[in-house]
């Protein structure tokens, strides 16, 4: 895996210089690691013990730490790139001015627009505004369903369904 560092090293400076990443709250640790890599790109050290450690998961520890116990620049960089890819897919990290990789929250209705269009959105999704609206929408329906429940109770038998009445016989 560490052999892939040569490939990553070629495009990493261009990626870090030209693309401005932002993060949702779930992506803050990954964004901190990306900014750390951008800050140390001109430093030639192979061991970077002051890096943010929050993104290093158990499977990555073997690749990130050398035999001497120091944090390897190569392993850490690959770990950060892997975390970046995962975070972009989950939309925890996004690119501010991008159509595909942009902030998904930017397209949501905000405050006043949400309150103005809330009822229409709920109706288009067939959702109730509040749970109490079920009884207002269908008066007595919950009572009728619970009264009829013993008659329509189904008992699971291997490979067939039987109503409660037939099960007693």
Topology:
Blueprint lengths: L4 H14 L2 E3 L4 H12 L18 H7 L8 H18 L2 E3 L15 H14 L8 H5 L3 H12 L1 E4 L2 E4 H5 L1
Antiparallel strand pairs: 1-2, 3-4
List keywords for this structure.
169 residues, mainly alpha, 2 domains, two-stranded antiparallel ribbon, two-stranded antiparallel sheet, 4 strands, 51% helix
Brief summary:
The protein has 169 residues and is mainly α. It has helices at 5-18, 28-39, 58-64, 73-90, 111-124, 133-137, 141-152, 164-168; strands at residues 21-23, 93-95, 154-157, 160-163.
Characterise this structure.
The protein has 169 residues and is mainly alpha-helical. The protein has 2 domains: 2-106, no CATH class; 131-169, no CATH class. It is 51% helix and 8% strand. A two-stranded antiparallel sheet has the order 1-2. A hairpin with a 2-residue loop joins strand 3 (154-157) and strand 4. Helix 2 packs across helix 4. Mean pLDDT is 78; it is low at 134-138 and 149-162.
Helix content: 40-55%
Structural class: mainly alpha
Please give the domain count: 2
Topology as H/E string? Answer: HEHHHEHHHEEH
By oligomeric state, this entry counts as single chain
Radius of gyration: 28 Å
Shape: elongated
Protein name: Tn3 transposase DDE domain-containing protein
């Amino acid at each position: 895996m560490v052999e892939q560092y040569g490939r990553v090293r070629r495009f990493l400076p261009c990626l870090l210089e030209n693309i401005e990443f932002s993060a949702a709250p779930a992506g803050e640790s990954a964004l901190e690691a990306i900014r750390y890599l951008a800050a140390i790109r001109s430093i030639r050290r192979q061991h970077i013990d002051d890096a943010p450690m929050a993104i290093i998961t158990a499977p990555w520890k073997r690749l990130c730490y050398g035999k001497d116990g120091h944090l390897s620049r190569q392993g850490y960089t690959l770990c950060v790139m892997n975390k970046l890819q995962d975070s972009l897919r989950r939309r925890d990290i996004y690119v501010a001015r991008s159509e595909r990789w942009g902030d998904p929250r930017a397209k949501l209705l905000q405050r006043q627009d949400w309150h103005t269009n809330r009822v229409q959105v709920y109706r288009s999704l067939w959702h109730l505004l509040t749970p109490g609206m079920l009884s207002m929408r269908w008066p007595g329906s919950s009572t009728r369903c619970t009264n009829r429940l013993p008659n329509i109770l189904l008992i699971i038998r291997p490979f067939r369904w039987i109503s409660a009445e037939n099960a007693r016989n």
